[in-house]
Amino acid sequence: EVLGAGPGKGMALRAAFAQRGGRVYYDVAVTNHTQEPMAGIAFQLNKNFAGLTPTNPLFPVASVPPGATVSGSIELTVEPAKVEIKPGPVGATVQVAVKNQAGVLYYTDSVPLAPLLARDFQMPQPLYLSTWQAIPADAHGAAPIDGFPTADVDAVQNALLAAGIVLVARRTVAVGVEALYMAGKTLAGQVFLFELQVNPTGARVTARSQTEGFASLVPAGVHALLMDALLPAHRPAPAAAPAAPRNPLEGLL
How much is the pTM? Predict the structure, then answer.
């Protein structure tokens, strides 16, 4: 629930971002806890890292009866003028304004990486290497992944491929540690590269992007994608101990 009935003045919302047919949607379920029909519902998104904005802000159902829950989808488009990247976890959220006949309310929702990925992206290994090396080392995001859902590298690789992330290479970098070298592109055109190390007790993501600030969003985005894809079939593993500093590309050079 992204908005409860209390702060929502009788309107409760559940919502999720999704991609269908190459388009991004904001799927919303509206529950009316008031004694009157709720009409004129519309949504707007503030600037966000993906540049998402509603194609039509109006909720597709004209009125929600008292006590009822009604679901609908808001189609979103990408507007470069709406792109704003804030470093850290706050960067992967968006402030949403929702209006009904009682006024305007605000709440914050998280924006997952998976619905934003371009599914036709490709990156050959030579381009991956040259792109990684051309990005300053301080323009990166690196973090251990807490509660990683599985040590099955095949399952991890398949989940990422299914989301539209491409595999450039896979290497064994230490005893019991495999690394996936992968890349992706958002519908807003942000290209990101990352190394995902998987070991029996956890994982670590190191990412770079030519888009300023975007690399810091990748570790959490990859983590959330994998948790959503794999958690139903795998129990979370203990967090990995921080890895010693190393060159993430040493397995490819």
Answer: 0.83
